Amino acid sequence: MPKQIPVHISTGRAARPVIDASISLAAKFEAHLDALAVGYISPSTAAYAADPTGGAAVAAVFEVEQDRAAQCARAALGIFETEAHHAGTKLATHATPSKKYPPMRRQRSALSRDSMT
Predict the structure, then answer these.
(1) What pLDDT sits at residue 113?
(2) Distance from C-alpha of 76 to C-alpha of 17, rounded to nearest angstrom
(3) Among candidates 46, 47, 3, which has minimal Cα distance to 26?
């Protein structure tokens, strides 16, 4: 019998089926729900990062996208929290925007330098 159920609340797809199923499962087993929603930064934003000449513009675009991603994550968790409280389910929630990573070629070169030292 599970006593703690991890739940990933999607911000890119309909979250209702996951919310309903996790709350039902928690009620059946009297379990605690631990929900996570990650707001994803649009893949098209990465195209800006490939252009090395637009430094300030790239930073501004990423900041706007990260704020939007965080808002999506909080909104998804807000719906989940409301439904869980109505059902009397114990829960913890975590919202986070996805992290910004450098382009893959830079990661490889950094890894090569680290492995040589």
Answers:
(1) 46
(2) 12
(3) 3
The strand ranges marked E within 24-115 are 32-39, 91-97
The range of the structural domain enclosing residue 58 comes to 4-116
Rounded mean pLDDT, 46-58 = 63
Query: What is the CATH number for 71?
Result: 3.40.50
Read off the pTM.
Answer: 0.69
pLDDT at 8 > cutoff 80: yes
Rama region for 88: left / alpha / beta (φ>0; ψ in -120 to 50; rest): left
Which pLDDT score is estimated for 55? 66
**What is the rounded distance in angstroms from the CA atom of residue 112 to the CA atom of residue 117?**
9
Query: How many domains, the chain?
Result: 1
